[in-house]
Amino acid sequence: MKNVIALLVCLGALSGCASTGGGFRTLGMIERFDKRLDALLAPDAKMEILDYGYDWVEGPVWVKDGGYLLFSEIPPNKVFKWKEGEGSSLYLHPAGYTGTKPRGGEPGSNGLLVDPRGSLILCQHGDRRVARMDAPLSSPKSKFVTLADKADGKRLNSPNDVARHSSGALFFTDPPYGLVKGMEDKAKEIPYQGVYRLDADGKVTLLAKEIDRPNGIAFSPDEKTLYVASSHPPKAVWMAYDVKPDLTLANGRVFFDSTKWVDVFGYKGLPDGMKVDVKGNLWASGPGGILVLAADGTHLGTLRTFEATSNCAWGDDGSTLYITADMYILRIRTLTKGAGF
User: Fold this and answer.
1) Is the pLDDT of residue 14 over 60?
2) How far apart, in Å, are the Cα atoms of 203 and each of 164, 190, 197, 199?
3) Is residue 339 part of a domain?
4) How far apart are CA 161 and CA 317, in angstroms?
5) What pLDDT was estimated at residue 15?
6) Mean pLDDT along residues 295-306
7) Count of helices and strands (H, E) across the chain
8) Within a domain: residue 50?
9) Which CATH number characterizes residue 43's domain?
10) Residue 254, pLDDT score
11) For 33-39, which contacts have Cβ atoms below 8 Å and span 24 or more sequence positions?
12) What confidence tens digit (pLDDT) does each residue in 105-154 have?
């Protein structure tokens, strides 16, 4: 079945489906709109298919100590591990919902993060919390410590993505996607979809609530700007906020608007997960693939996957971008490096 799927991808992708030097098949094409992209991606850069056949993958994170990628498969409530030369294997189950009562929807983990102490942080849809895995990354077990599950005494909707500030604070988004019935779910306790800060002492502070569906979240390299994706079709935008010295937000504004690509051109995907490189460029999953946006908001180009693309993460030495796109795990070599490498 996987061979049939790969063949269909080959026939459907405008760039064809060729093998790279490492033997991996490729997917999609690179669209170049600004010459600045040439300093970020080589002319022959291609997206390699590392694995495929998943339900819906998200939340990729690179584990430096061990040299492997972790990613969430949300509907079946699992986290997988991919390593060069070994391929993919089940890493964690359950990953986002630890209850015993069967439930539908998207119960698994979404955004993942490895903190400085080497622990895995998970945004857990089903358990409606931000949690830390209480086991070494080298020996995972399904036991979690709750870091945040409430705001002002009310249960969170379903934490989606998380970014760490150098102060140790975690900034996370809380849309309704993990609730079985979404916005109409009777278990929804908070009337809005918030952007929050979780301090080291466990305090949860609401930072913004005007975004219809806050999703991906990332800091600029100097941490003076916080980017938040809005995955709401009528307003498919990325917002930018100034980060004040007290770690609150100010001057919220639209950084880039991709709404027309959704309602006019019908591209697959919405603004979702993203990462920033050392030069301040935003690599953001959105309509059509991964959009590369300069710090001034200029759209430099798109890694056109032709799939609903959910997220990305820097890995290896920081110059490889790993991408989750619907059922695919992809990789592309870049000429830049991710912030933090």
Assistant:
1) no
2) 15, 17, 8, 5
3) no
4) 23
5) 39
6) 98
7) 2, 28
8) yes
9) 2.120.10.30
10) 98
11) 33/299, 33/300, 33/301, 33/302, 34/294, 34/298, 34/299, 34/300, 34/301, 36/294, 36/298, 36/300, 37/292, 37/300, 37/301, 39/335, 39/336
12) 999 999 999 999 999 999 999 999 999 999 999 989 878 999 999 999 99
- State both tokens at 85: 């030369």
Stretch 14-24: mean pLDDT = 56
In the chain, how many domains are there?
1
CA distance readout (Å), 66 to 26, 49, 119, 248, 283: 26, 21, 13, 35, 25
CA dist list (Å): 292 to 213, 269, 273, 277, 279: 21, 15, 13, 10, 12
CA distance 330 to 262: 23
Distance of alpha carbon 24 from alpha carbon 49, whole angstroms: 6
- Looking at residues 217-241, what average pLDDT do you find? 97
Q: How confident is the model at residue 6 (pLDDT cuts 50, 70, 90)?
A: very low
* Residue 100: CB atoms within 10 Å: 5
Contact assessment for residue 25 and residue 47, using Cβ atoms and an 8 Å cutoff: no
Per-residue model confidence (pLDDT) at position 10: 40
Indicate whether 216 belongs to any domain.
yes
Q: How many angstroms separate the CA atoms of 59 and 281, rounded?
A: 19
For residues 160 and 193, the answer to whether their CB atoms sit within 8 Å is no
Distances (CA, A) of 71 to 119, 156, 226: 15, 23, 23
Instruction: Give the domain range for residue 35.
Output: 2-333
CB atoms within 10 A of CB 241: 20
Residue 341 domain-assigned (yes or no) = no
Q: Which of 22-26, 55-59, 155-159 shows the lowest per-residue confidence on average (mean pLDDT)?
A: 22-26
In contact, 291 and 256? CB cutoff 8 Å: yes
The pLDDT assigned to 142 comes to: 79
